[in-house]
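*** Backbone structure tokens ***
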Amino acid sequence: MRQLSPLDAQFLNAETSTTLVHVGSLTIVDTADSPRGDLTVEDLRELIGGRLHLIGPLRWRLHEVPLGLDLPYWVESEEFDLEYHIREIALVAPGTDEQLGEQVARLAARPLDRSRPLWECYLIHGLENGRKALYTKVHHSAIDGVSGAEVLAVIMDATPEPREVEPPDPDAEPDEAPGTAQAVLRGVWKIAARPARFLLNAPTMLPHVLDLPGAQTIPGVPQVAKVVGTVTRMAGLSVIGDRPDPAPVPPRTPFNGPITPHRRFAFTSLPLEEVKEVKNAFGLTVNDVVMALCTTVLRTWLLEHDALPRTPLVAAMPVSVRTPEQMGTGGNQIAFMLTALPTQEDDPAQRLDDLHASLLEAKERFDAVPAQLLQEYSSVLPQALHGLASRTLLRALTMGSPPFNLFISNVPGPQLPLYTAGSRVTGSFPVSAVSDAGGGINITVMSYDGHLDFGIIVCREMVPDVWDMARGLHDAMDELLEMARQQATGGRRKARSTAR
């Protein structure tokens, strides 16, 4: 048993009929050389069922506190139905990537059943060339990027033959959920203690109110922050002016605003060797190159839709703040770094220079903010108001300028082949989420076994042509490679500063 953190509960309570807050992955597998000769749903149930005792987030179900007086708990599910959680479906011939993306989009648009552990896995048959796919989704309240990778590490193997796993301890008894009276008393005590906690943390929290994603776009907040800054400077608690300048205000785009329940999903891979060639030519990082690719793709899409803003887009990049002691605990330990994407710049070399500088500025801003700021602000309101407050805040964020234009996430992955029930994994494409506040596009990238796997999920009505974006990544890669090779012969200037 463990209690959700305030940030975990925010992911739970922000969910609406159009915004579903689960994340997952599309895994492509090749069964040709599998020792079993195939991959069946029975194989998956046997594999995951035999390792379920090692994967807390897949065993947990929600246990609500009466009257919403306190944060919910994760408790061990008394009844577990693997046939419900692990299912199979098939594509009709010919089983193209576009058909697979459409099927994943439909599955991603369905909510998870909150009376059960919050995850589902689908084995998808019928892909071209005899391939198969797994689409797995887990609620964001249970995992973030790091804890999600921990789940995959337990399920996957480094060899075709699955490793032996120690069985669960037959004498182990799961913790019982708190009784009604105990849960209510805990909740009442926390409500009584909340003002004292707020006062204790206020000197750290209040000077950083504008560092919360989207805070500067909410009417009235910048004025409040100015007053707070004056008071804190007089008290000697903080000097807001000494911190880096805030991220630029995001412009309006066709993919910002209220989303619909419908999704589209596209995926593609780029060779990591080519990304590193660009990285080395300009003294950048792999993440710099990923962001440059995304910037070019977004610029191209906006130009084609006659919607290119005159100012940079602003992307939110999730960053793990998980400590070594928090590894293996599930839940969310993340913060968000905002960075400007110079989509308005026509010259690709200048665009790359500007992006690199922007990323360094974003890192400087991020390092100036307490790592647990998002957790602390999430804990301010009583749980009984969390759902209402989360949804009200999301509506407020969509009334003026968006808090940012989209999420872009780059997740480092293993650089060796992995196997699922004996079948080799040939691609692992993240499938994230979109929202009213976070924009109708989410681009998440995972490096795996010598390539970068891009997953792009969108609101269907905002971005009906998501596969154009996926194909555009290859054009953007070609452009960067040409620049890198010209750089090697002295034909292009180097990025204006080296990566840190």
Notes: The first helix runs from residue 6 to 13.
